[in-house]
Amino acid sequence: MWICNDWKDYEIIDVSCGEKLERWGDYLLIRPDPQAIWHTKKEHDGWYHPNAHYHRSKKGGGSWEFIDLPKQWQISYKNLNFELKPFSFKHTGLFPEQAVNWDYMTDKIIKAGRPVKVLNLFAYTGGATVACAKAGAHVTHVDASKGMVTWAKENAAASGLKDAPIRYLVDDCMKFVEREIRRGNHYDAILMDPPSYGRGPGGEVWKIEEKIHDLVKLCAKLLSDNPVFFIINSYTTGLQPAVLSYIINTEITAYFGGKVRADEIGLPVTSNGLTFPCGCSARWSL
After folding, report:
1. Cβ 193 vs Cβ 233: under 8 Å
2. For the structural domain made of 8-69, what CATH number should be given?
3. CB 3.0 to 4.6 Å from 102: which of 131, 197, 213, 237, for a disulfide?
4. pLDDT tens track for 231-281
5. Whether 52 contacts 69, CB under 8 Å
6. How do the domains of the chain map onto residue ranges?
7. Secondary-structure class of domain 96-285 per CATH
8. How far apart are CA 49 and CA 54, in angstroms?
9. How far out from the chain centre does Cα 10 lie?
10. What is the C-alpha separation between 171 and 74, in angstroms, rounded?
11. CA atoms within 13 A on the CB side of 154
């Protein structure tokens, strides 16, 4: 398992009874998580005095209970800064476990020793975009949500990257990739963080089990002759690391060589020293 141990502004304090107690900078949040199936005693005081608590509804979805939380605040990871704000379905705008991939990409871009063009698909609020741009890459950031793209610009500005070579696009990822192929464009690195289910700006339906292989196959046509990396992240239970590895080996390794490493991603839990699972990732490089 790849474990992110380098956060100072974020931690999972404890996990129990379907919920996580987290510290985001100066604020304590309680959020539900389907992986937390164990029932241990909630001893930390934060369980009883959080700044905000997201309550799941038995009918589906849920809502925030705000006790003492600003509408927006900022946290940092190394030399990266991120704007946070609670919004629908328990999210804050950042997935802290992805820092293990930010570090990996930063290292690959710097060691390439040349200009690197990165394509970030399903780019959300731009955690990976900011990390790659900070390392010196030219980044194309694609997401179907206009609001998320606006948020990504805020994160870039917070990290001193307002004028960095980042191209922001509100678009359906599959259609964008198809157009880039027709245009003859290429990228040295591609990463994607696809949702289990979603809709594009034109109502296009995305189901990861049905679309992921086709998308990777198309993306292989966008890679340059000397690619740096290819990464897929997944929070979908059915897409285990071995599944992602198999897809990349079939469509990327078979043509470019190189190798794939795939594993779960996790974050340490302060209260007991154990690791909490947070999805999985597959990384390809030469």
Report:
1. yes
2. 2.60.40.1180
3. 131
4. 999 987 778 999 999 999 999 999 999 999 999 999 999 999 999 999 999
5. yes
6. 8-69, 96-285
7. alpha beta
8. 13
9. 15
10. 27
11. 18
